[in-house]
Amino acid sequence: MSETSTKPYLIRALHEWCTDNGYTPFLAVTVDERVTVPREHVKDGEIVLNVGRLATSKLDLGNEYIEFQARFGGVARQISVPVDAVTAIYARETGHGMAFEATPPAAKRPVGLAGAVDDDSTSNAADGEASSDHGARPALAAVPALDDDATGSESDDDTDPPSPPTPDKGRPRLTVIK
After folding, report:
1. For residue 2, what pLDDT band results from cuts at 50, 70 and 90?
2. CA distances from 109 to 32, 105, 114, 121, 158 (A)
3. Cβ(102)–Cβ(87) below 8 Å
4. Beta bridge partners of residue 122, listed in sequence order
5. Cβ contacts of residue 41 below 8 Å, gap of 6+?
6. Beta carbons of 98 and 10 less than 8 angstroms apart
7. How far apart are CA 11 and CA 24, in angstroms?
8. What residues have CB less than 8 Å from 66, skipping those under 6 apart?
9. Is 176 helix (H, G, I), strand (E, B) or coil?
10. Secondary structure (DSSP) of 27-42
11. How far is residue 90's CA from residue 14's CA, in Å, rounded to a whole number?
12. Contact 102, 86 (CB under 8 A)
């Protein structure tokens, strides 16, 4: 018997947390053929849904599907989202929540991602060689070590230690604070 995913339980817990604290829970969903949502509101293959109690009726946060009725442009629509397609649940007001990986449908999962290991899929990671039955697979490779002269760890003269690297002024970086 396979173990039940924790994802639907985490979604229900965060939905309850948002509701208990007066926040509006939003679901970010990757849209594919399994997702039943108004396609005119889908942008870049994703949709964000308000799953608050005031915005939905008949909300069912199940283990396989999240189903509810909601109004889009004044028209009531039946919404059905597989739990696998949910990429995040968060509070609209604060942004606090949790992000998930969207998993492909079971029929479209590549071989080896379902958790089963077959005998033909063995690879030699040290040599970077993969089995030819499954095509090219990523492999780890050794990174050459720097010589001691390049690192400046052993210095015979009395010079100052190297200054710390300056922050890159280019692309901004996201810092996670817990």
Report:
1. confident
2. 14, 6, 7, 16, 60
3. yes
4. none
5. 47, 72
6. yes
7. 13
8. 11, 27, 51, 59, 60, 79, 80, 81, 82, 83, 86
9. coil
10. EEEE--TT-BS-GGG-
11. 7
12. yes
Lowest-pLDDT range of 65-69, 135-139, 143-147: 135-139
Position 43 scores a pLDDT of 94
In this structure, which amino acid lies at residue 176? V
Helix (H) or strand (E) holding 86: strand 86-91
Which of 7-11, 72-76, 116-120 is predicted with the least confidence, judged by mean pLDDT?
116-120
Q: Where are the alpha helices (DSSP H) in the chain?
A: 7-20, 148-151
Burial profile 89-126: b = 16 or more Cβ within 10 angstroms, e = fewer: bbbeeeeebeebebbeeeeeeeeeeeeeeeeeeeeeee
CA 66 – CA 59 distance, rounded (Å): 7
First and final C-alpha spacing in the chain: 36
Per-residue model confidence as pLDDT tens digits over 90-138: 999 999 999 998 676 654 544 333 333 333 433 343 344 443 444 455 6
